[in-house]
From TrEMBL:
This is PPC domain-containing protein. SUPFAM superfamilies: AF0104/ALDC/Ptd012-like. InterPro entries: PPC_dom. The lineage of its organism: Bacteria, Bacillati, Actinomycetota, Actinomycetes, Pseudonocardiales. It comes from the Bacteria. Residues 24-170, 175-289 form the PPC domain. It comes from Pseudonocardia autotrophica (Amycolata autotrophica).
Amino acid sequence: MTAATAAGLRHPGPAAPERIVAVPARTRAVAVDLPAGAGLAAALQDAVHRLGVTAAQVELLGGTLREVSYCIPAYCADGSRAAHYSATRGSAGPVAVVAGAAGIGTRDGAPFTHAHVAWVDRAGSLLGGHLWPATTVGATGVQALVFPLAGVCNESAEDPETLLPVFTPRPTAGTGDGARAVTARVRPGADLLAAATRICADAGFRRAMVRGTLGSLVGPLFPGAGRAAAGPCTEVISVRGVVGPDAGPSELHALAVDSDGVVHGGVFDPAASPVAVTVELLLIEVVDR
């Protein structure tokens, strides 16, 4: 069993000195309807391609899935990694999408989707997890908000620190329109609220919204919750909040699934819930008109 410390999980590889990789961008929210019968991952990639970009963060708002192929967090059986994926699970549809987020980019030069979703199954149970490409859109389609990221290359590759595949954003040619934004990879052990606050300061944002964000956390610790999340970590399905010096007391709300398959939600304590493997964070500046 892999040990967790106050700074997060103990990963097998060398830790990069810079714990936040942040890329400035401009973005806007684009509502899309994903068609019935399509593969969810492919449909998201198509929607992003039609916007003329290769990178985006996405929020899943509702709709149905016909079949869900997914996993939840697990301990690594051979101890070579701090955390790993469970065996593949299935949830027969139709299931109702509750919430979700996805990162869109490339892996080995081809389009790639990383998605975490929560849903209610036919028995009325709330489930969640990391989706595999076999997941398909249900008869009513899926509604989503896409935040395109022109000028950003989001490449998925094995991370030397965690030995797991993660997205890392890099600047590239191109400029977008819309609000100022920063897309970032937050590395293991970081306090997510502190990381978001630092990014705001570096970008000159007085206030920013957390949108289209997913990843993994140790815990998270929800103060007052009756049940702690089972380790080694949780897959974070969504994170929302407003941060920055003009945001007042900042809170982050998360929805996450643990290694028992239990979905947890609410305001979490970021100082006691460090990033486990990675968080794909999108901050969008809020400007008072």
